[in-house]
User: Fold this.
Amino acid sequence: MGLSIIQIVLLVLFGCVAGMGSVLDSFQTHRPLIACTVVGLILGDVQTGVILGGTLEMIALGWMNIGAAQSPDSALASIISTILVIVGKQSISAGIAIALPVAVAGQVLTVFARTVTIFFQHAADRYAEDANFRMIDICHITALVVQALRVAIPTFLVAGVVSPEGVQTLLGSIPEVITGGLTVAGGMIVVVGYAMVLNMMGARYLMAFFFLGFVIAAFTDFNLVAFGIMGAVFAITYVQLDPRFAEVKTAAVCSVDAADDDLDDELD
Amino acid sequence: MSEKHLTKGDRINMFLRSNFQQASFNFERIHALGMTFDMVPAIKRLYDKKEDQVAALKRHLTFFNVTPGAVGPILGVTAALEESKANGAEIDESTIGSIKVGLMGPFCGVGDPIFWGTLRPITAAIGASLALTGSLLGPVLFFLAFNLIRIAALYFGLEFGYKKGVGLVQNLAGNMLQKITEGAAILGLFVMGALVSKWTTINVPLVVSQVTTDGATVTTTVQDILDQLLPGILALGLTLLVSRLLKKNISPITIIFILFAVGIVGYGLGILA
Assistant:
């Protein structure tokens, strides 16, 4: 038994929302936590959607677009993996194994879509010559259609043909050592996201706080909200004490004092 | 001739538009069209003559890029500059452009660590930890928390930038942005440290020794020894290693697939479980 027409329509519509969310990077509808949950709702198994979403979200935690550089694509990966896991009654770790290759394919499609949209940019240039505000607005917003289709079309292709038997034959042919190994790897690949965040912060002199967080977490049962509050306390305290941000006036006085001392020393 | 001012409604319109900043993201000029789209209500209000409107549109259709959540203040300052220009102040075209471009760097510098290094990882990790127990609260909480803060930053950022105008640029000469950036980095790094410990699973079940005393067998694995030393030490080492590899421009996806291979081989040989 495949999916009903209504389910396919809803999946394609949500594919559009996630695709647009992916380029806007504002509402976060492309993140696994949201996308997997919504797909789970559509397919009538929210529980699996939410858990897979949480699992993939941890893996994708540091996936971010900085400047023009594109990260692996969480929108398509979340939708396709959730469909296959729920329809094919697969495990969460099978979901991880499906999601990652799809994230790479999605990344390629993203780069393609963001190249195609140069067309809309040039169209807007022409409308600017006439001060045609309405068409400039339309150029900007219709560029979203490209991004919506980027996710909606692959979603339609998968949702249209997917069947429990198909998924089970496909994934059942994978030997146990691979699926077991992927589960093990799933526990490790979360560090790639953490490392991406560390590198983006680019503040070596603040790495002490990273190690502090690590050690406190290793020996306590505090939850993440507690860590957030503690982190904020450290941040505020440190910024207040950082000599770089001390009042310029004080700094000037200090340097005068220092100069005086030097002179005194010389006189001595 | 009376002075022209942006109304509250114009600014709200600009704020609503700025939620769609990246709709026409393209590799040629990134946010050029997005910035123009945001500025449309201001240009309409401030310039009556068609040639002035054309000139204003053209000067915003140039390369622009910033963290989408941090565009508010830049938009506000730019709108304030356009307003002064429309009211006859001596501001030439290149001044508006160069102030806008000049703000790009500092606001990426503060926007990326705040939104992608701190706000999203923390709200997402809290949401994910709830979601792993099957609770719908996880995704809902993440969605609401992230968007409320993002929307507040856009709206109040725009209002702040508009009211301060060029004064904002002088404000930046102080060290407000550096302070925020440093604080965000500390918070982000601290929570990342906690995540490395709590949410990474590496288990090495290799047996080191098996001692049987009085019929009870005590098995010691490599993992037991490592846990006595420092729980999560392997996860810490792996994170630092991956951070180095990323700095050598090895792509995240390559590293993920290498870790896949390590997982499969390790599991096959019984070193990892």
Remarks:
- Chain A touches chain B through 110 residues (CB under 8 Å).
- Confidence is low (pLDDT under 50) at residues 249-268 of chain A.
- The radius of gyration of chain A is 26 Å.
